[in-house]
Fold this sequence. Notes:
Blueprint: E1 8-12, H1 16-29, E2 33-37, H2 40-50, E3 54-57, H3 66-75, E4 84-88, H4 95-101, E5 106-109, H5 114-124, H6 131-145
Parallel strand pairs: 1-2, 1-3, 3-4, 4-5
Helix pairs in contact: 2-3
Amino acid sequence: MPNPHSGRVLIVDDESDLTEALAIRLTSGWGFTVAVAHDAEEGLRKASVFMPEVILLDIAMPRIDGWEMCRRLRDDPNTRNIPIVVMTAWATDDLQRLAASECVTKVLLKPAEDQELLAALKSSCGVARPRDAQAERGRKHRRRSHPRRRH
Length: 151
């Protein structure tokens, strides 16, 4: 039985076979809405338009690597608070230190177990929105639902 979710996930990985299989699993199997990018430049463009609730990001990519993409996402006020889950096959000694310095939410080693991946996505989806947009939505909602009356 599928586990329905409404979270938006952006997958950024240059391995098209992996991204295709992962996208199918996330949409058909778990009910996420998914966008895919095959390099960091495309990922940055899609992140600002799609506004995912979480980004699954590979580190080893051509031209711009995943760490640089993290820095660019964090420099952009519209994407700085989107949780990033790094998925990498490169388990290095300093991987966790680098991930922490780039404000990565979670590191998963490829191939990630389904339950580990699902737990990382569930814990990340919906927990962070860009601060300005979230605050603005909250202010608009409060104004509509609780109008002030002047006496």
